[in-house]
Design brief:
The protein is largely without helices or strands. It is built from two helices and eight strands; from the N terminus they run αββββββαββ. It has a two-stranded antiparallel sheet with strand order 1-2. A hairpin with a 2-residue loop joins β3 and β4. The longest helix has 12 residues.
Amino acid sequence: MRRRSRGGLALLGLLALGCTSRVTSGGRDGGVDGRGDGPCWSDCQGRLCFADDGCGGLCQPEQGCRCDPVCAGKPCGASNECYGTCQKGSGCLCTSDCTGKVCGVDDGCGVACAAGSGCCTPGCAGTICGAADGCGGHCAAGSGCCAPVCAGVPCGAASNCGTTCGAGSGCCSPVCAGVPCGGTSNCGTTCGAGSGCCNASCAGRACGALNGCGDICTSGSCPDNEHCNDGTCECGPAPHWQREGGVCLPSCGVLTGGCCPDTSPGCVGGEAGASWDCPYCCEVQASGSNCL
């Protein structure tokens, strides 16, 4: 059996005795105190962060220490030594920079960039809204730009801004189909050749016929003895004129002013013409013939 050395036994004795430590609120295991005779407990409550914690370490923000930002004389944006950065108003040194910025915005030091500072002045007066403003942005309403209005404007015509009103702009598409050439479309434009308009005319057309544009001719030709009245051929006036077998005929009295003879031979020199009320209507009644 092998014998243990005297030094090894001493080490085992120390391990058996043990020396434990544990972390408490606001402190950390610091090993032994400065005298080397016991556990050391750090205390950072109320101390400045990054100051000595009493155990040879530095107080950290999560240990409840007090952190006073240090920004005086530092450039804005640099560390404030409290896990943050120095901002405007903290005493940091601010460098104004307007190069490439739009005039009127913050220069980085709380002052608006003005003309001559290197900023860009948008040029929107007289331009169309939505166009480039010359500073990397686009002209919006209120910038002096013009917003095209095409509602009610015939498609293809100019808007209030001089642009052409096209499909999707709210413009009006003229419809001339069925409108007499020279008439007005649904958009207020004049319907001319090639627009689909029609040429209205009743010349040579019958009474009541269509005029070429879907309307009825209120004048025009009618069958014998008839006249056109507001697009309708009429036989008249009644009661002296009547239709007989679809033909407009006068009375015999209208033709001769006389009466109807009872027989054809009752006429001298032939009949005056057809009538709706007599079998025969004589120009001159023969003697001895009787009136019906």
